[in-house]
Design the sequence.
């Protein structure tokens, strides 16, 4: 099967700034209860996803373009750029902000670790 991505824009996601464009790769239904999102996310300069916690699921971010600041569960801040992978474990919080001058793009996968 081959199909096109679906695009969704969310504003001020999780209390963040600006907008986030989701390029959904598969649907939540296709996870068959094992997860809920696999998408390429695009944040324009100055945009962010606010602090939030994942209970019973994990979410890696794989940075494919741009740069930004990733805030980890303990409050540590890291500069992230192409090729970096941010691992958000179950029960941990995080946020990310595009602090660069170009779009920050990354793949995000949310899947269950307790089922």
Sequence:
């Amino acid at each position: 099967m081959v199909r096109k991505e679906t695009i969704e824009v969310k504003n001020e996601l999780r209390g963040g700034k600006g907008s986030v464009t989701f390029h959904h790769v598969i649907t939540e239904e296709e996870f068959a209860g094992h997860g809920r999102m696999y998408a390429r996310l695009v944040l324009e300069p100055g945009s962010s996803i606010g602090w939030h916690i994942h209970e019973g699921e994990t979410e890696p971010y794989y940075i494919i373009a741009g740069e930004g600041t990733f805030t980890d569960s303990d409050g540590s801040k890291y500069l992230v750029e192409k090729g970096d992978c941010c691992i958000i474990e179950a029960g941990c919080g995080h946020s990310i902000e595009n602090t660069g001058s170009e779009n920050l793009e990354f793949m995000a996968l949310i899947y269950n670790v307790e089922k």
